[in-house]
Fold this sequence. Notes:
Number of strands: 18
CATH superfamily of the domain at 4-227: Acetylglutamate kinase-like
Mean pLDDT: 91
Strand order of the largest sheet: 3-4-2-1-7-9-10-8
Amino acid sequence: MKKIVVKFGGSNLKTREDIQKIVSTVKLYNRPLVIVVSAFYGITNYLTDGIRTVRRDDAYITEMIGYLKNMKRETIEDNIDDPDQKEEAYRLIRERLDQVERNLLGVHYIGDIPNFIEDRILSYGERLSSLLLALILKSKGIDAQEMLPEDMGLVTDGEFSNGTINFSKSTAPVAKALAEDKIYVVPGFYGISEEGKVTLLGRGGSDYSAAGIARCVDAESLDIWKDVDGYMTADPKMVPSAERVDSLSYTEAAELSYFGAKILHPRTVEPLEQLQIPVRIFNIDGPKDKLTPLSSIGPDSINTGDTAPKSVTYSDDFSILKVNGPGVGIKPGILAKLTETLDRYQVNIKSVVTSQTSINFYLESADLERAVKSIQNVKEQAIIKAQGISDMSIVSLVGTGIVHEPEAAHRMLKALAQEDIHTQIVSLGASDVAAYVVVKQEDKEKAVKAVHKEFFES
């Protein structure tokens, strides 16, 4: 029997009751699983901020370890009854927190945060979750074992903070390590370089690591448990009339994630397509009588002939780097020089649009300031000015075949025009399943509602 890989995210680990929901969900499967867990809600941010504080102030290390110890103590007290098992849990948690403390002391002593140390420290959010959940499941009579990425051979390309799983080196050892008929609990978010160093898989990368493990074991499915009702035609907090989307293709799900939908990490479907492993989305607060997914994601072929839009989404994590000058768009070598510069400064380019006098780079907002400074240092006579524009939002309509539907772009722009929304940029054709516009952030909500009304409420 193939295994199912089950992912519980930080949204499932907010309150004391959440652990109990996870235990009841695991029992519902009644079969061997590979469970991938995120850090408890807010812990990754807490560790990120803490690393920077302890570089200057070693007294803060004691405060951090005390905070983490108290949080885990509450979880143990609430979920483990047997005194011997409880004592064992305290001992193992203390050992893992001692490892965190030693790494934090190292940061303070050298007064710097090397990338390999930062990745290692941040991985402990997930390592604490996996250890606790495995211990709690065992205390409930479930045959569960923690399995760390370094012990099962989940090898990455070695890039710190945003690594990629090396499947040629990982597949066989991971499949072997997870072969027994039991429940394995694996910390998400990180893998190990060939040199044995911890490398994170990007913020929110637990989804991606779960998908990578699903590929390694050729899983029956990847089941992701959230606290929302799957994919919707729009964010229901913004559009109360939004309805659930039952099925999507891999490409549709990837584009929705890329353009701001928070259900999956954008890279989640990447490892699954070759083996056509389906993704099933569940709500942990929903009915537990049977395992019926709220939304399912599968091969692109499942939507052949279906050109209807699936959802409209948005993202504020979007900025423009505008490089102006006579002929910058056509002078040979300038675009290559600019992209090489941005790559050197570790700026991720989402998209590029050029004209004769302007090159527009679409970036993540966190990269904008660094990107502008890097381009201002480029010695190129044709460049007159480099500036950043940060008060923008991207609104995207996603659905298979949408770019081949003659009326789709017209209807989208007409709906925006009727609400007097000025579109800064319009893009159709970069993806077969997405059309998007860039608007001022102040117009974002109005734009989403207008597009949703045109395509899903008419």
